[in-house]
Amino acid sequence: MKRRTFLQLSGMTAAGTVLSGCQSGNEKLIPYLVPPDEGVTPGKADYYASSCRFCPAGCGILVRVSEGRAKKIEGNPAHPVNRGKLCAMGQAVLQELYHPDRVPQPLKRSGPRGSGAFTRISWEESLELLAGQLRALQREKATDRLALVTPQLNGTLVELTTRFMRVFGSPHHLSFDLLGPDWLRTATRRSFGQPGLPWYDVAETRYLLSFGADFVEHHLSPVQYGYAFGRMRQGRDTVRGHFTYVGGRMSLTGASADRWMPARPGSEGALALGMARLILAESLSDAGSLAVNGLQTEKLLRRLEAYDLPRVAEQTGLPQRIIAEVAREFATTRPALAMAGETVAFQSNGPDAVRAVQMLNLLVGNLNRPGGVYPDGGSRVGPENSFTELLSLVAAMRDGRFRVAMIHGDPVHAIPPATGFQEALARVPFIVSFSSLMDDTALQADLILPDHAALESWGDVIPLAGTRDRVIGLMQPVVTPLFDTRQFPDVLMAMADKLGGKTAAFPYQSYQEMLKGTMEKRVGRAARRDFETVWVELLRQGGLFETRQGQEKGYRRAPGSSLPNPAEPRFAGDEKRFPLHLLVYPSIAFYDGRGAPLPWLQQLPDPMTTVVWDSWVEINPRTAAEMGIGFGDLVEVTSPQGAMRLPAVIYPGIRPDMVAIPLGQGHRGMGRYARGRGSNPLVLLALITDGTETRPAWHATRVRLTRISEKGELVTAGHPQGSYRSELIEI
Ligand code: SF4
């Protein structure tokens, strides 16, 4: 049987399943009475390789399909990033396909904005509606009044969107992810003069020092780093790597460490430089590395004079003895590796703090060495400065400069309101959403052109920072689309066709064809001669995986780069009125909120607090006792930006001067499992930047707590003391 026939057959079967699943009354599982020909055997599964694009890590997946239904997702063992492993979000992608609240066909707004009143329309009608808006812009020579807002894209989709916007005549494509690692790209470029992201050889290191990089949960490529961490700890016969975690809140990553250093928020850069100074002063640095990078110990020591141990201890709130001990351990264990993460980066002094951590790697000579840090294989060319672009887009929207906004993703939920995005968007006369669920952005739209689910889509994914090798993961549809939806890139191509002229000049009929064309260009010249066979093989395997040959250009200190010198951290909110630091962290289940509609993820107990289905605020027992707050009490969290009420979780793994709230809940839409559940802590965040350039400092907001009542609603999957032993946590 041809694959196409199979997909048609399987899609019909799957569609039938879903539709009948919506009906009440008796339902029966009816086996095949007449066995289909061409090889579909009831009970026998087929496996299709594809890629997970739920987060930018781009892991490889294998989807089990039987009787035409996608039934299970596992990691692709051949994929160099995740080697057969998968995280909970990757497993739950199946529920995106079968979500009962998917937008089944194009919708046109029929009530006031935000009311959720829409009418179903056909694709022809909906595309004509959008084309009409765009033609009007063309007629009036106002094509730059179109904005396109998407998450950070990669692969062929970048080529397509860039081309569409360029040919249409608008430079306004905002590619923004709240959790995008632009900060790491910038820091790496400044430190080492190279674009792209670093790849850390965690598996081979003997001493790992993480400054707030929560690589087990979400940092860069969690499945890959989780796997590597397992190897570092248990995969070698005689070596068990040591792990020290720096950060004010004990995350799941922090809880896996041998030592926890709960440094004061914003002091991590000073801590890194204090360690650097001690390493240099005690001649523990790598002389060869200093020489290669054009640095001299004496000069460096003079520049780091301000970071003496007593001062750094005072700044960080950590004992001098511990700081010195960790610095010596780090410098005398080879190879040793330092990583910087989001909790450091999103402070007002974040960029220099990240570079201070990167300098530690240089000092101990572990650049471009096993167990050290290398340039990543795939992310060399990537988006940067998206936050700057976000703010200019918001300003232009607020001034009424845009007539049409096309939006993929859910920025209304995932962009902090302090940026003014939500208010500015309301000023755009015509909003198009490509969401497959009625999310918070789709609720504000005038037209919804629903995208396929990931398992129905074609695509390519260049994994983010997960490997040194050249990896291009492929996505292929494993079932025929269940509803009357269309892939976002195909809609752009159809729009180009409708608009005609230069915009129509796409050399491909469909996105699938375009993808195949790009892959043909990417494979070697010899393989291009018989590309049909190669293409089938690439799809079977899950993508193009090439081990990097020879020595790539490794890291060296960028000529003329100044030494990092993190300023005193600044915070939004007066210390007296708002005495506590707020940390908003991505939960392991929801990422930036995109996981919230999937019930498996809602049901996943938070690994540290065991809370399910909700939002909460974590408070240190000492702070809670001073304020008379008990476990589960309802408290109001107030920042200079906003306020919200949440149940309290008394959590010993957080500094007494901090509180933390997980990210991802608090949707107005997003289907029945996410809607109205929990709160979105982004509304609390103030807009504060690093002062020298426009970088967000999301962790630089202060808050205060007010106890409201004893009755909060909090469901835990077990007593939280079951997942950690408070007497073992010393703070
Ligand atoms: S880490 Fe990201 S890409 Fe990998 S399985 Fe999880 S959600 Fe998917």
Structure description:
With 731 residues, the protein is of the alpha/beta class. The protein has four domains: 40-98 and 454-481 and 524-546, Phosphorylase Kinase, domain 1 (2-Layer Sandwich), CATH 3.30.200.210; 107-178 and 382-451 and 486-506, Rossmann fold (3-Layer(aba) Sandwich); 198-375, Dimethylsulfoxide Reductase, domain 2; 580-728, Beta Barrel (Barwin-like endoglucanases), CATH 2.40.40.20. The strands form seven sheets. It has a seven-stranded mixed β-sheet with strand order 5-4-16-15-14-6-7, with helices on both faces. Strand 23 and strand 24 (643-650) form a beta hairpin. Helix 8 runs antiparallel to helix 11. The site of iron/sulfur cluster has 13 residues, from helix 2 and helix 6. Residues 52, 54-55, 57-59, 82, 86-87, 89-90, 222-223 line the site of iron/sulfur cluster (SF4). GO terms for molecular function: 4 iron, 4 sulfur cluster binding; metal ion binding; molybdopterin cofactor binding; oxidoreductase activity. Belongs to the prokaryotic molybdopterin-containing oxidoreductase family.
Q: CATH fold name of the largest domain, please?
A: Dimethylsulfoxide Reductase, domain 2
Q: Which cofactors or ions or other ligands sit in this model?
A: iron/sulfur cluster
The top level CATH class name of the largest domain: Alpha Beta
What's the number of extended β-strand segments?
27
Which runs of at least 5 residues are low in confidence (pLDDT < 50)?
1-29
Number of domains: 4
User: What gross morphology would you assign?
Assistant: globular
If you compute it from the alpha carbons, what radius of gyration comes out, rounded to the nearest whole angstrom? 26 Å
Note the total helix count: 23
Euclidean distance between termini CA atoms: 64 Å
Q: Biggest sheet, in brief?
A: 7 strands, mixed
Helix content: 25-40%
GO molecular function: 4 iron, 4 sulfur cluster binding; metal ion binding; molybdopterin cofactor binding; oxidoreductase activity
Pfam families: Molybdop_Fe4S4 (PF04879), Molybdopterin (PF00384), Molydop_binding (PF01568)
Family: Belongs to the prokaryotic molybdopterin-containing oxidoreductase family.
EC number: 1.7.99.4
